[in-house]
What does this fold into?
Amino acid sequence: MSSFTDPMSPTGDSRRLTNRNTNRYSVNQLYSMAAENDPDIEDDLSRAQKRLRDLKGRISAQSKKNFVLERDVRYLDSRIALLIQNRMALDEQNEVQQHLEEVDPNEGAFPPERRLTQYSNLFFLLQSEPRHVASLCRLVSLVEIDTLLQTVMFTLYGNQYESREEHLLLTMFQSVLSAQFETATEFGSLLRANTPVSRMMTTYTRRGPGQSYLKSVLSDRINSLIEHRDLNLEINPLKVYEQMVTQIEEETGTLPANLPRGVPPEVAAANPDVQAIIAPRLTMLMEIANSFLLTIIESMDTVPYGIRWICKQIRSLTKRKYPDATDYAICSLIGGFFFLRFINPAVVTPQAYMLVEGPPAKHPRRTLTLIAKMLQNLANKPSYAKEAYMSSLNPFVENNKARINLFLNNLCEVGDFYDTLEMDQYMALSKKDLLIHITLNELYNTHQLLMQHLNVLAPNEKQHLRILLDELGPAPAQVPRKENRTLDLNLFSRWETPIQDITTALMAENNVTQNEILYMETKSIFVQLIRSIPHAAEKRPINLPGIAEKAATSRDATLVRKGIKVKEMLRELEELKVVDRKDDYKLMQEEVAAELVHLGNLREKVLQESRSLEAVYKTICDHNNYLRSQLEQYKAYLQNVRFAADKGAAGGVGVLAFGGKERKPTKTAPQGPFRYTHAQLEKEGIIVESNVPDNRRPNIYFNISSPTPGTFIIALHYKGREKAILEMDLKIDDLLEKQKDNKHLLDLEYVQLNVPKVLGLLNKIFSKKK
It folds into this structure.
């Protein structure tokens, strides 16, 4: 199928199943697919489809790489603080070091052929029967879930745009959610706690289709907001009071007696000047939040099918478990998933989703946080116990309650895919190229988790899962990171016989007659011929016998074979009185013409989807580069810590060098200064915000030097003046700790610098200088 969304769009498709007894659907759909995806055809549509398939494959592969990198960065975030504070033993440092090793394609060995065959059977079973994976996801601990999710979301069902894998993954979600609702003890805690299930739902939203939606819907809105760097919309009375007092002190040089510092929140809130400052900000915040809400509501039709389908399951399961639950309460659960797990993380940290170029400045960052809080209060029952000042924004909640409930209910209005999935399963059994790209450690980790919970997953010794695991025996140990190679694992069933003739199988299942099969196949071949012969269908009505004759007498062997075959099939249909030459085969003509219209529309959809996904792919690659740069900083720092420890153990003078180059424990000469203009640093995105007037910026430059390894001085100079206007001493530890704590701005009074990019620049300069 060209896209898993096509047969399941909210409005439906003329060819979509309406009930389980639509007998001709599966076979008819099969021949439409054959006409649509014939590998021998080289027209505009087939070329566009090939490009789109390649792009989707690259997005799926890159999404997995990003997921793995994000896990590495999270791991190092948790360890780097200990390194900075010198609280990590040497053996722990070695463990962290191993965590950063690259995979060597020549290291390690693949399992023997017989064992690979057993894994092929096991992973076919896991993929095609999602209940096993669903049970496993509920059984594992929170510590184990990320590794399992990597395998489930990005390997087992890693082709994010392929209908069968997407349907199976959603079937797994239904099992997981059903169990979550069955075991729930109270309504309020459903889906809100940080559990393996909630982690699964968040991870699902980070796949390609979800990223594409966020980019198209939120990017422009957020970028237009963060352009207003100086727009301060703080409404917390305590913060507003402190800002007001600071400003008065700066302007007058004294602190008024009636405005002491350190007042309690209620005193700040009662101050008339504070109230006057906050009032217009509340109005503006509600206007901005309304614009965000309107954009999201208008995006209904572009919300990925899978996310809408999960919303539908949440509504359905809630109604079954809690029949007396109000519509508002049900919508709060749906909103908890859609806003809390999907929309709001991208609003609060747009740079992590690559919706913006760099981290927003201080004021826009706070505004985005307030917008996210407002959307969350709207989607959930608002609670102002912790942040009483947010109650001032309650009119936004009250005015939009009915509107958001209607939106959340409409989100759930999507068709199911079970009948389509049945055909996908037939297709899977008839294909010989079902495969997944899986690392050795993913293979062994899944094996180990299955063995660990085997008695729950497959208590009966005759169950297929138990038979396969008994034959495989204990799971191999995890291999070292550099030996963790990726292999292409072909999937096939040990128990189901591959379908040699899918048409015959579908005929038997759907009670479709031989005459109907002949008709559908004939129509399909005519569509393929018209696509292969230039200008074949320019004249209307379409001359079907003429097209068959032209193909049969062409110089192309494939066309000749199809032309002769379709002439014979048309003659046979006429003898069976299914079509009639006297009316120029009118019925067949009309259906072929309708298929061609569909394919023409499909080409436009394919091209439009390609344009959209190109932007998504670029975003994912940018994010990959950003994550890699973070890892590089951590790697460099770790090398220096180890170097310092080694030298200290040897009785030398332990020093930290930034670039990971070993230095003798002797006194080292200062390096630099290296000169950069304001324009250079602005162009590189290192300067995030500048208070230097535009006309003076050409006269500003920065000298960067390193007096001792691991310490740096950034000095801001004005041309013609000998002394620096200001200097800042930096330690590599401090910069890394800022990065770890997600504090991305470094304040130099006149300019604010991007911390990760400063780290990158220092690494670039000083790791290569002798």
Remarks:
- The chain is about 60% helix and 5% strand.
- The first helix runs from residue 25 to 36.
- The mean pLDDT is 80.
